[in-house]
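Quick review question:
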């Protein structure tokens, strides 16, 4: 079911597809992102010699103030985030298996497909390869290419569009974090919010920068048939 606060979706003019990675390419219900989050807490615990509760609080604080924990470690602690990023993304992918529906859906989508992530290209590559869908994507614009400025920082959307060669007015962006769709919408990109909770009481439901809402990637594409 396509859940749209506005009108029906016209994809005839679409030539570019911009996908977030975490909780978008794989469903939010999967156990993957909790693994990343757990490794972040563990990294802070070990690096700063904190209790688990304090490490959790630090992660939350850095995320809230800097947009990503890695950016917070750079800004506040002068750390090179490379080691942190490679540690937190070293997750177990044994639950990720080939998904024929996902593969064929992506294969049938006309236009250029790219990944736009606050994680790393290496993390994206591992997940896309585990699903065996990596060949559908022409580009991955990651946090390193963004010089550690995370979504929703507006400037990186322009950089991403320039690097990928995607025309904003002919593009769709799919993302689970609603706030990350605002700069996309401001640039004329059609925005699809993947809200796995589908909580209609959320204030974001009527946010003007959300064009369409779906539960997850596959239900979005099913709704187009
Ligand atoms: Mg995400």
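Suggested answer, residue by residue:
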């Amino acid at each position: 079911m396509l859940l749209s606060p506005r009108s029906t979706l016209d994809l005839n003019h679409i030539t570019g597809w911009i996908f977030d990675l975490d909780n978008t390419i794989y469903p939010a219900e999967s156990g993957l992102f909790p693994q990343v989050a757990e490794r972040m807490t563990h990294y802070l615990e070990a690096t700063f010699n904190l209790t688990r509760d304090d490490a959790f609080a630090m992660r939350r604080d850095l995320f809230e103030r800097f947009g990503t924990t890695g950016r917070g470690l750079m800004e506040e602690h002068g750390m090179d985030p490379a080691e942190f990023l490679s540690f937190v993304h070293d997750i177990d992918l044994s639950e990720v298996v080939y998904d024929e529906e996902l593969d064929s859906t992506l294969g049938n989508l006309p236009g250029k497909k790219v990944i736009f992530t606050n994680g790393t290209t290496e993390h994206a590559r591992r997940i896309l390869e585990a699903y065996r869908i990596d060949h559908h994507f022409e580009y991955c614009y990651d946090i390193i290419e963004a010089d550690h400025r995370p979504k929703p920082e507006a400037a990186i959307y322009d950089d991403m569009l320039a690097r990928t060669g995607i025309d904003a007015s002919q593009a769709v962006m799919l993302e689970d974090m609603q706030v990350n769709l605002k700069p996309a919408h401001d640039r004329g990109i059609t925005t699809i919010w993947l809200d796995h909770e589908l909580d209609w009481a959320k204030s974001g439901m009527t946010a003007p920068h959300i064009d369409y809402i779906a539960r997850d990637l596959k239900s979005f594409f099913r709704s187009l048939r």
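Why it works: The pocket of magnesium ion is lined by residues 20, 22-24, 176-177 (CB under 6 Å). Residues 116 and 141 are 5 Å apart (CA to CA).
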